[in-house]
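Predict the 3D structure for this chain.
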Amino acid sequence: MDDKRQLLGELTLDDDQREPAGVKLHYYLTAAAAVLLAGAAWYFLTPGHDAITVKVATAERATGNVKANVDAVLDASGYVTARRQATVSSKVTGKVSEVFIEEGMVVKAGDLLATLDDSSQRAALELTRAQLAAVTARLEEVRIQVKEAELLLARTSELTSRKLASTADLDNASLGLEAARARLGALEMEVRVADRTLGVQQLMLDDMQILAPFDGVVVTKAAQPGEMISPVSGGGGFTRTGICTLVDMDSLEVEVDVNEAYINRVNPGQPVVATLNSYPDWEVPAEVITIIPTADRSKATVRVRIGFKERDDRILPDMGVRVSFLEEQMEQAPVRETLLTGVLIPTGAIATTDLGSIVYRLEQDRIRITPVVLGPRQGTRRSVTEGLQAGDRVVTGLNDELKTRLTEDRQVTVEPPSG
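Done. Predicted structure below.
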């Protein structure tokens, strides 16, 4: 015990070796600040510091045969669009009285969608009717005056011939008849004007009823009773510009952007096989309607319109769709037994760009954008012949927002499986 005390005594510092307490505190603060700065630099400068959670799937080795379409000359992706779509509004500004539609309702051309408050228009219509009645009554009065002037002229003419009336009397009677006929013509014109005004007021009253312009389905209900609507935007954003959005489902088609380097493979009337992302096993026959005669300079693409040959309630506006352009002389792609090679991944893990198909491959906790070569489809999965190996993990469940956030070297975390 004495030895230990002696050793502890040797650890003491002389007074000239001691540093002021303030100097030590300064060192500690400087070190802490350096650590904080280093941490902040790592957080803000390291790629993927704001990690996002994603779903992943593992590439499995493809085995067996599959029935697959072949001889497609080009693949592309796009969206279902409605060629005939309208935001139905009123011709005039008014307050909504009643709304007779809901989302998903099927309507026919001329069906009543909504009504506006028409009290002012009805009052104006009744006023115009009263004015027309008053002018008509005056017209009847003037007609009687014309008959009276005609009789007076006839009597005066007879008396003048018998030398019982002067020529001046005859002239006065003649001028009186002409004046009566002039008043009759003016009142007849006023009656026509009043009648036309009545028609205008009736049209303004009819405009308070909003009718369907064509057959379609209501996809958006934009106004409720009591709200103001107007054909133009106004009121600081408190005035609606329409009652609903109506879509003609028979006008649905596909719009895709084709890289301008491959647009020479596409021609109007060319057969196409379309596959909706929502129904990957359902192939819909289609054909090219037209090639929009202009290119997008920023994306180096040309837009192509594709029409469906079959109508189905499962096809909805703004759905994602993949299309395969076939040889022009083929009505549909031949189906043959094809040996699967490479690996299989979910179709939801494949993204299409102007340069081809890519996947977002996961290396540890980092994203690597990997170009791939696609093979035949097997159910909800697609074979990849080049770019992936069995066991590779790829991000699935891709959508536009997720693809925008996913970039090369992005840090991600894997969402645990449900259940």
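DSSP finds five helices and 26 strands in the chain.
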